[in-house]
Amino acid sequence: MRCVLCRQLVQITWTLPVILGQRRLRVPQLCAACLRTFAPIVVATACPGCGRADSPTLCVDCQRWARQGALLHHRALFSYNAAMKAFIQQYKGLGDWRLHTAFQAQLVPPVSGVIVPLTSEPAHFIARGFDPVLGLFAHLSLHLWLQKTDTSTPQAQKNRAGRLATPQSFSVRSGVVFGRTRRVILVDDLYTTGRTLYHAAAALRMAGFRGEITSFSLIR
Amino acid sequence: MWYSGMQLLDTEVDFDSSVAQAVPGLADGHCQRCGQSALVQLPSGDYYCPHCINLGRVTSRTTLYRFPAPQLPSVEWPLTWKGQLTAQQTAVAAALVASLQAGRDHLLWAVTGAGKTEILFPAIATVLAAGGRVGVAAPRLDVVRELAPRLQVAFAHTAMAIRYGGAPWPQRTVALTVLTTHQLLRYHQAFDLLVIDENDAFPFAHDPALWHAVSAASRGPKLWLSATPPTRLRQAAQRGTMGLSILARRFHGHPLPVPRIRIQALHLPQRIAPQLIRQLQQILMTHQCLLFVPDIAWLAPLTQQLQTAITTAIAGVHAADAQRAEKVAAFRQGRLRLLVTTTILERGVTIPRCAVVVLGADSARFDAAALIQMAGRAGRSADSPDDPVWFYARHDTLALHQAIRTIRQLNAR
Known about the structure:
Chain A has helices spanning 16-19, 32-36, 60-68, 82-93, 122-128, 132-136, 160-164, 195-206; strands spanning 75-78, 114-117, 146-148, 170-172, 183-190, 212-219. Chain A contains 8 helices and 6 strands, in the order H-H-H-E-H-E-H-H-E-H-E-E-H-E. The radius of gyration of chain A is 18 Å and the shape is globular. In chain A, 32% of the residues are buried. Chain A has a 4-stranded parallel β-sheet with strand order 1-6-5-2. Chain A has a two-stranded antiparallel sheet with strand order 3-4. Chain A folds into 2 domains: 1-36, no CATH class; 40-219, no CATH class. Chain B is of the alpha/beta class and 413 residues long. Helices cover 29% and strands 19% of the residues of chain B. Chain B is built from 10 helices and 20 strands. A 7-stranded parallel β-sheet of chain B has the order 10-11-9-12-13-8-14, sandwiched between helices. The model of chain B has no long low-confidence stretch (mean pLDDT 87). Classes of the chains: A alpha/beta (220), B alpha/beta (413). At the A-B interface, helix 5 of A face loops of B.
């Protein structure tokens, strides 16, 4: 295996349970040196509402979300440091689809449930030729319950106030049956203000989903 | 027009492109910009070229606009350089012009520290005077930045552009373009003379797209400059399909220092053998020393051990080091006696009375060209032309012997 980012050979540690087939081998897609450049978020000290690093109590933003309804209790793996910005620029900005497997070994939701990805807008899909969120989570079994209509400006080009004022653009696809689903895990690449994820949760509620909704992302 | 001779993506063209030839970005399973065929399929069914993606993605939906590069009006002799070439340099410069006029490529094989740039001036001036376009390409940004001001001084009245990743787009028509070899991918049939400097250096030597870029970007002779030419160029020169000039003497006329090999099981980098420390102490009594290592991970432990064992005037430096410039400057001024480094300093560094020690010289990362370049850091000044060069290896490799054989051959000329 070669590292998806630097193309150096990756060392695989063969432990006995793996060799005997008791545990599935997760082939690392990133070499140790590349993985070290990213900043993992320590769950114990992260904000219980949004997963922000180094905020053991509910952060100010989450207190505001809490006044508007139930919190998502979001969890994220990494902070948005320089290395992660470079990764997102290469993957989403330049459109290098090869990178979609980079975090496969890490991107496993902390709880079980029906995984619902936040899909990209049709116009963005046509421009990129792929959906970045579906790519990152392609190794999991996904339920495409939500669809997004085209919006005027992408979230990445707005400031904080502009992001928070974004109108709802998610809706539940026709023909989706929630059945006896107890918990939905919304997955996205990046949690910035939380606006997009809370809109997605609201769309599920509008369609009559009554179970628990939580969320998970690569970056906070 | 500034875009004459360039090939640009539809996303890069926001002006009238009616003069351009529009071609599909991918055709016959090959990227039309970099010539590579390892394409990747997207979930939408389209393909893209991952090889040159850092210059903007080429997909099956992309159109490449190739702008023609018309001849420029001929000008008076544009060379404003007032220096003098030595007799040997003059002869080589004349051979370059002869190859140019015969329309064939030329390999200039010049040892490290021979003064290559000045030899190019008459050839470049000949093309510029006739209204031709000249490109000077080098694999590394440091080299481009060092080369550009020298060329601008030598051709003071010639419009010149500098192209590298992140540089602003040029604003005017230019006759002379200094660029990184990656930027050659943005040119098509653009240069009547293309000079490729240091063509043996990373990343050029190992990237087939850059070889493709050189032939696609030029429409006239190519001039290859190298201290350690790759086999395919040497063979082309031997067959006579390419002109060849060899400058085997440094400007001071002394032979290159011949490296000595020491085969020894050194438990690097955890522990430094006492013999190696004694050897370094001996070298440091009379010389400064560059200590090359094959791996960045070796820098910290080695530097620390040497600082306690020998002297505190020792530092380690690597490509991504924030204090790289300061440390190299301190070494130049002699405040640091020994510099532990990866191959970043293998080219373009000139320090008088500097010994070279290569640890792990048997590493697969050091090919013969890299070893010759590292050895070439020694003996560059006239008052100390025979600085010691040592290759420490655990076992013999072909690259070690190729390097030493090549240096001996050049010295025998």
